[in-house]
Design brief:
Elements: H1 28-36, H2 39-45, H3 62-75, H4 78-85, H5 88-101, H6 104-108, H7 117-128, H8 132-149, E1 169-175, E2 187-189, E3 196-198, E4 206-210, E5 216-220, E6 222-228, E7 237-244, H9 252-266, E8 272-274, H10 281-289, E9 293-295, E10 305-312, E11 315-322, E12 325-331, E13 337-341, E14 344-351, E15 356-364, E16 371-377
Parallel strand pairs: 1-8, 8-9
Antiparallel strand pairs: 1-6, 2-3, 4-5, 6-7, 10-11, 11-12, 12-13, 14-15, 15-16
Length: 419
């Protein structure tokens, strides 16, 4: 790669080691203590409806069931979370934290024993799930505040578009937790006796494909999440999440674009997003128009494509698009021709009233002296028309909606893309 505004490539051996050290490891009980002492859970519990005065009164306050929901991912199951609270040590610690965050009266009114798993499942169906939209809205609001308090997406830091910092970018990904059961039907017949067998079925589970181009089939429920990150462990803040239904509904990239657009409105100092190969040009297009960088991998199936002819006096340069950036085909000593990336001296961002535009300012090397040339990047849905050279398009690539071919604002092969 040329030594341009994006910098030179750094080998993997010179990159910092990001493995957890022994001092950064956290045990199960430390993570449980973090949940018990997390102020957000106590604040969100205040927005849940109070117990009804009609019928059988609710035995436990909403914070208990919300705490069990938070402990379930730590202990790996709802049954384990309910069993953990039955221990005297954890139940006493929970009463202590409720006394600290809510008050002595709330702690004194707690029953002497923790709720059972059946009580939690009933509260989950009748209390937590009906308030799911409220809980998600409160979570996103407090998550944004938490990220800003940790110094993520700072407003007083310079925005260098060609070299964004990790804390200035959103990071997104999607994962497929395996379905709790492999069964697809609630009832089946025994192959030998014909007896009707009942099975536990996840109604939202379907087959997805992970690992990019390797296409690894996984059955489960896909979830997307977006986060803000900084250098060092335990600094990541989950900012948003959403279910990826797939099929005839929104796919992973569409869900990601929608969540990133909503987060941009709440985090105006966010510079862009980091994502995997699920993003195509149409998705980068939407984010580019609202002023966000998009850093994601290049698909291996994308072949170099001719971009445009550049004429300046006696000089003629044929520009190609390769690996997300402009390159020029040159001849080497053995008589073959290779694509040499053209140095980029500036990544320009021009913010308009309704959308943004992005440009690469190229420094095209030439034996008669280097030439400065500006190409538009980021936006793929460009209308047909003459380029800055004043000549009409001679080839089709610039006259259609190109989802993979145009130059990237930050090319995938550059070290700036590895934040």
């Amino acid at each position: 790669m040329p030594d341009d505004v994006f910098g030179t490539a750094v080998s993997d051996a010179r990159r910092p080691d990001r493995k957890l050290t022994d001092g950064e490891q956290r045990s199960l009980m430390q993570r449980v203590e973090d949940c018990l002492d997390y102020p957000l859970l106590y604040e969100v519990a205040e927005h849940l409806p109070a117990p009804s005065a009609v019928g059988c009164p609710r035995e436990y306050p909403p914070i208990i069931y919300l705490m069990m929901a938070a402990l379930a991912p730590v202990t790996k199951s709802k049954r384990s979370a309910a069993g953990l609270l039955t221990t005297d040590t954890v139940w006493r610690a929970l009463r202590t934290h409720i006394r600290r965050h809510i008050g002595r009266h709330a702690a004194a009114n707690l029953p002497p024993e923790a709720p059972s798993r059946g009580q939690y499942l009933y509260a989950e169906a009748n209390l937590l799930i009906p308030c799911l939209d409220l809980l998600e809205a409160q979570f996103r609001h407090y998550a944004v505040q938490q990220a800003l308090c940790q110094g993520l997406f700072p407003a007083d830091t310079a925005k260098i578009w060609s070299r964004p910092e990790r804390r200035q970018l959103l990071v997104g990904d999607a994962t497929v937790p395996r379905a709790p059961s492999k069964s697809k039907k609630p009832e089946t017949n025994h192959p030998e006796t014909g007896e009707i067998l009942t099975h536990r079925v996840d109604p939202a589970a379907r087959q997805y494909y992970e690992s990019g181009e390797k296409k690894k089939a996984v059955r489960g429920t896909k979830w997307f999440f977006a986060s803000g990150r900084d250098h060092g462990y335990w600094r990541r803040v989950i900012l948003s999440f959403g279910h990826v239904a797939g099929g005839e509904y929104e796919d992973e990239a569409a869900v990601a674009v929608r969540h990133f657009s909503e987060l941009k409105a709440e985090l105006p100092d966010c510079m862009g997003v980091v994502y995997d190969g699920a993003f195509r040009g149409v998705h980068r297009d939407v984010l580019a128009r609202i002023g966000m960088l998009t850093i994601n991998k290049q698909h291996g199936s994308v072949a170099p494509v001719f971009y445009d002819h550049f004429a300046y006096g006696r000089c003629r340069h044929g520009l190609w698009c390769d690996q997300g950036r402009i390159a020029e085909r040159i001849a080497i000593d053995d008589g073959t021709k290779v694509l040499q990336p053209v140095p980029v001296t500036r990544l320009e961002h021009r913010l308009g009233l309704t959308k943004s535009r992005w440009y690469h300012l190229l420094d095209i090397p030439c034996r008669h002296g280097s030439h400065e040339h500006r190409v538009r990047v980021g936006i793929t849905s460009t209308p047909p028309g003459p380029e800055r050279t004043g000549r009409p398009h001679g080839t089709a690539p610039q006259e259609r909606h190109r989802t993979r071919l145009p130059p990237r604002r930050i090319p995938p092969a550059d070290p700036s893309a590895r934040v």
